[in-house]
Specification:
The complex is a heterodimer of chains A (about 120) and B (about 110).
Chain A: E1 3-7, E2 11-12, E3 18-25, E4 34-41, E5 48-53, E6 59-61, E7 69-74, E8 79-84, E9 93-101, E10 108-109, E11 113-117
Parallel strand pairs in A: 2-11
Antiparallel strand pairs in A: 1-3, 3-8, 4-5, 4-9, 5-6, 7-8, 9-10, 9-11
Chain B: E1 4-6, E2 9-12, E3 17-24, E4 36-40, E5 47-51, E6 55-56, E7 64-69, E8 72-78, E9 87-95, E10 98-101, E11 105-109
Parallel strand pairs in B: 2-11
Antiparallel strand pairs in B: 1-3, 3-8, 4-5, 4-9, 5-6, 7-8, 9-10, 9-11
The chains are: A mainly beta (about 120), B mainly beta (about 110).
């Protein structure tokens, strides 16, 4: 049974870097069948896809965030991570890690973690 | 920049049928966009209901169905129930690893 658990600071100061980790259990992160994602949702607003990574390290980014985002994977720890630099209040959101199968929108979601950007 | 469009809100009577749509600001949605639908209740993570146009996820009632209607993807609920009242989001695959979500539809059952 897949479990995805986000972890990281719940409060980040403006202009600093947001860092989150997703711990994957119940399935091998190195399985070639799956891709690993970060998706966010500002309070009261809709979903926004941020980035995807494959176990090999291949990455894909939302063009609107690409200049500030880095997604990485550590297969030895069965986890993948998100870094978002130069954050502002607009980056306040619930951040979800997720998994999907190649060429399918069958996202499996973590519970999400709220990150607030505030001084 | 491509925008994925959804009705902001919709209302259906209990037992009624409702069709939510997912379109593009420019162009038509086809199966190649892998349109997929998610249900989200307040305070919870989204749950995949339909993926790749019309494939129901495990445990999703068969009153939910997905299709392409005209130039949009569609989610139809036949025989709506009170606990179907939720936010529904669609996503489209734009190719090159990129996904774009719609703004979501708030469905009211009353």
């Amino acid at each position: 049974q897949l479990q995805l658990q986000e972890s990281g600071p719940g409060l980040v100061k403006p202009s600093e870097t947001l860092s989150l980790t997703c711990i994957v259990s119940g399935v091998s992160i190195s399985s070639g069948d799956y891709y690993w994602d970060w998706i966010r949702q500002p309070p009261g607003k809709g979903l926004e896809w941020i980035a995807t990574i494959y176990y090999s390290g291949s990455t894909w980014y939302n063009p609107s965030l690409k200049s500030r985002v880095t997604i990485s994977v550590d297969t030895s720890k069965s986890q993948f991570s998100l870094r978002l630099s130069s954050v502002t209040a607009a980056d306040t959101a619930v951040y979800y890690c997720a998994r999907h199968t190649a060429d399918r929108g069958d996202f499996d979601w973590g519970q999400g973690t709220l990150v607030t950007v505030s001084s | 920049q491509t925008v994925v469009t959804q009705e902001p809100s919709f209302s259906v009577s209990p037992g009624g049928t409702v069709t939510l749509t997912c379109g593009l600001s420019s162009g038509s949605v086809s199966n190649s966009y892998c349109p997929s639908w998610y249900q989200q209740t307040p305070g919870q993570a989204p749950r995949t209901f339909i993926y790749n146009t019309n494939i129901r996820s495990s445990g999703v009632p068969d009153r939910f169905s997905g299709s392409i209607l005209g130039n949009k993807a569609a989610l139809t609920i036949t025989g709506a129930q009170a606990d179907d009242e939720s936010d529904y989001y669609c996503v489209l695959y734009m190719g090159s690893g990129l996904w774009v979500f719609g703004g979501g539809t708030k469905l009211t059952v009353l």
